[in-house]
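Folded chain entry
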Amino acid sequence: MRPVRLSVVTAAAAVAALASVTGCAEKSDATAGDGAVRVTAEDDACEISRNEFPAGHVELAVENKGSKVTEVYLLFPDDRIVTERENIGPGTRAKVTAEVKAGSYEIVCKPGMKGDGIRQKVTVTGGTAVRRSPEMDAAVAGYRTYVQAQADETLPKVKAFTDAVRAGDLEVAKKAYAPSRIGWERTEPVAESFGDIDPKVDVRADGLEPGQEWTGWHRLEKALWEDGKLGPETTALADTLDKDLADWQKRVGRAEITPTSMANGAKELLDEVAAGKVTGEEERYSHTDLVDFKANVEGAQQSYELLKPVASKNDPALVTELDKRFAALNTLLDTYRDAPDSYEFTSYEKVGKAQRKELSDGVNALAEPLSKLAAAVVK
């Protein structure tokens, strides 16, 4: 589950409200000599080195000078995410590279990773068109085929789950719940390119915006494992889940996917694994976190494997390190599954504190080199 994004209405209000805030002002003397757009995040400010830059491969060089963990986003006007970097700790720096076309965008800093954030409008001018190698085009085409296949294969599994909910069969629905989510979790590296589907189908109760109706898998998860009852309300929720995921299946083929969005999405997904799956917050009622965890790693690895021919030419040492780290994390996850090809994993409530720390260390060891993949792809 990716964080809920701001609505277009909320975004417009936030921009208007922040327009007069001194801390949001552009810092003209911070222009990066290396071509990167410098973003300085503080607890009450979001300073950028320039509000106009050419299209192409754009690097955001972020420094968090505040006391809170922050997030930085580059957003389309309708709040779709072009690129993002989450979990930037106080006193630390991060870089993110994205393929950006000419147009209007916003750079957003979100201190504490909560609220509307502090926004800066930016303009991307014509610039030089990004030239992709045949290997990069092949990577995007391959990933598009992959996510479409995952969507196509997910719908029948979801129907098995929702049919059981409609039939009022608690035990069958519980058994079908985790398998119905695997395809979705595998595509989460590019989930933001699907528009507003994510907050409809995969939001948790604590991720809801004010006034937002709680729908999707986790609302049904609560009904199954905590409430222990099914009825007219859950039937309606099952119908809505079917409808929303059918919409997702149609959107996958039109999603905006680039080599950098594949690489950045894989890294951000591992950050989400560390923040939600490893802690047990994602599947707090069913404790099927390790199923999601494995599917997330598979989706991130698929993105990496498709980009590997390009990365191998530009940074062979990075590829060697990533191969090693993916293998280590997969080996660790395999110790919690019933069989090599099974998606029956140990219930997460039975995974102790020391084991969770080991899983967290494995994710972090992979996330660090994976954060360098986008830059390696566009060298």
In short: The chain is about 50% helix and 15% strand.
